[in-house]
Amino acid sequence: MTPTYYTNRELRLKIDAILKECASIFANLGTGSDLDLKTDEAADSKEQELLFKIKDLDEEFFTNKLATEPTHDAKTTI
């Protein structure tokens, strides 16, 4: 089944607006502007909140395009 993101223009516009907001979070981080969330933790938290909004709108799109597997700690050796 095709995710509704690809078949429903209104939904696609909503999801695209959320994705743009996610990009804006990190583009403004550390700038000192009104949109700067100041810390990586605050930016990550806001991004997660927004991504779960996308999941509520289209779970298949979220799962196929946005969900990531947990990564190993960078200090872990292979």
Topology:
Blueprint lengths: L8 H20 L11 H18 L1 H8 L12
Structure description:
The chain is an all-alpha fold. The protein has one domain. The chain is built from three helices and no strands. The longest helix has 20 residues, at 9-28. It is elongated and about 45 Å long. The termini are far apart.
- State the shape: elongated
Number of strands: 0
Low-pLDDT runs of 5+ residues are none
The largest pleated sheet is described as: none
What is the strand content? under 5%
Structural class: mainly alpha
Rg, nearest Å: 15 Å
Mean pLDDT: 88
Write the H/E string, N to C. HHH
Defining traits:
78 residues, mainly alpha, elongated
Short characterization:
The chain has 78 residues and is mostly helical. It is 59% helix and 0% strand. It is elongated.
